[in-house]
Design a protein that fits this description.
The chain has three helices and 18 strands. With about 350 residues, the chain is mostly beta strands. It starts with 17 loop residues before the first strand and ends with a strand.
Length: about 350
Amino acid sequence: MSANYRIPVPAVDFKPPVYICRYNDKPFHLDGRLDKDFWKDIPFTDDFPDIEGDIRPVPRFRTRAKMAWDQENLYIGAILEGDEIWAHLLEHDCVIFNDNDFEIFIDPDSDTQAYFEYEMNALNTTWDLLLTKAYRDNGKPVNGLEIRGMRTAVYIDGELNNPDAHSRFWSVEVVMPFAALQECAAENRPPVSGEYYRMNFSRVQWKVDVKDGAFRKRISEETGRPLPEDNWVWAPTGVINIHYPELWAFVFFAGKGEEEKGFSIPENEYRKWELRKLYYAQQACLDESGHYADSLEQLKEILARISPCEENRTVKDLEYRLDTTPHSFEITCPSADGKSLLAVFSDGKVTAFPV
């Protein structure tokens, strides 16, 4: 039902993956391969499911990623299995997902705004940009952004653009300097042990046929256009839209020797999710009636009616406050320790205010 709304309510509950990013000061040689000593003790993420979650079939090809960090850089490696390895785009900052690709999304301060997107194909052609806000909130991509100091490499176990080759996978390595990422981070600095970034990874995989010795996108007989691409992600968003930062994974930075510490999602992030559900209801109210609701009871009724996921049809009993104007809204609730107010705004931003 919510698919008819401008901002659909996700068909998944708030259960984002948690990953412990280990501090790693081993020597690093960039070559796109993950079978070297640097990655030896670094765990993989879970296999990527479909972006819509368990309601869709398990992806036909396996995708996994790893992360590590040191004082200067965030290191990302991924293996994209499958024998359909092809790429054609060569221009930096072109629309890379028109090829099969691997994508990285990073929101350093978990406010769901001012986040980084990075895409690359099997030719190591790249596209980096900054989203001021999610597209659903009228965000604009800053395509001129260059993540300073980025380094990337691709390794192909097989042969590019050759359907007859015995290809098994392609893998990527990405080195992102914190000096570039910290522009959107809390306090504009690199992370310290125990802090977290919100992140997601995506793999775009087009359906293809082999014609005249080459991979060709499969064409729909009805439309004459390529069939929709598959989107396989680390943290499902429950809608065919990766730009739901509130559902991205939590990547905790563990100091050297602190890998086994008990890192868990803070209570305030769960409270932000309760606010987010009311945000979805407000946006649906605007679609239905042309204005925002000025009653929490009205928002709860809308939420119960439009949410495809049962867990999202209600909100926890917190001390909410709703302030609505003809063109905007603000919804708040107390933080877990009662020392601040958590807030979500009509433009999607979430933040905290001291009280």
